[in-house]
Design goal:
By secondary structure, the protein is an all-alpha fold. The chain is built from nine helices and no strands.
Length: 139
C-alpha cells in the first residue's frame, strides 16, 4: 500500500452513515474483485479499512462474566491467555495488567456469537469456522 493511502486511512476519521451510504452505492455497481491475489485496494476496501480501524469493539471481562454463566477457564480460552491472567483481571487486591484491546475484542465477538449465532448466514459461519475454507482463501 502506498504511503499516500496509508496517510489517508489513518489521519481522517470516517462518518459511519456516509461510509455506509457510499458502500451501498458501490455495491449497486456490483464490481467484485477477480479471483487473483493480491486483491486491489479500491474505494470500497479503503472505506471498510477505515470503518474497521475506528471500530471500538470491546467488552470487559467483568461485564462478560455478569452476562454469561462462564468460568475463568472459559474466558481464558476465548481470550487465548492463561487462567492466571484472567483471575488477575478480577483480583482487586493486587496489581495486574488489565486486559488488552485484543482481549476486549475477543470477548465482544464471543458475546455477539453467543447472542446472534442463529441469525448468522451459514456461508458466513463456514468462512469463520471452517479450516478448509480459510485454507482455500489463502491459496
Amino acid at each position: 500500500m502506498s504511503d499516500c493511502i496509508k496517510t489517508r486511512l489513518v489521519d481522517h476519521p470516517i462518518d459511519y452513515h456516509e461510509a455506509m451510504e457510499r458502500l451501498e452505492q458501490l455495491a449497486q455497481r456490483n464490481s467484485k474483485p477477480e479471483n487473483s491475489y493480491p486483491y486491489p485496494i479500491t474505494e470500497r476496501e479503503q472505506i471498510l479499512i477505515r470503518l474497521y480501524s475506528y471500530w471500538e469493539l470491546g467488552m470487559t471481562p467483568q461485564r462478560f462474566y455478569q452476562k454469561w454463566d462462564i468460568t475463568p477457564e472459559d474466558i481464558a480460552l476465548i481470550c487465548s491467555c492463561s487462567t492466571q491472567t484472567v483471575n488477575g483481571w478480577f483480583n482487586t487486591s493486587r496489581r495486574c495488567s488489565p486486559p488488552t484491546p485484543a482481549h476486549l475484542r475477543h470477548l465482544a465477538i464471543m458475546d455477539f456469537l453467543l447472542e446472534d449465532f442463529e441469525t448468522i448466514p451459514k456461508g458466513l459461519l463456514e468462512r469463520l469456522f471452517s479450516k478448509e475454507v480459510r485454507m482455500k482463501n489463502l491459496e
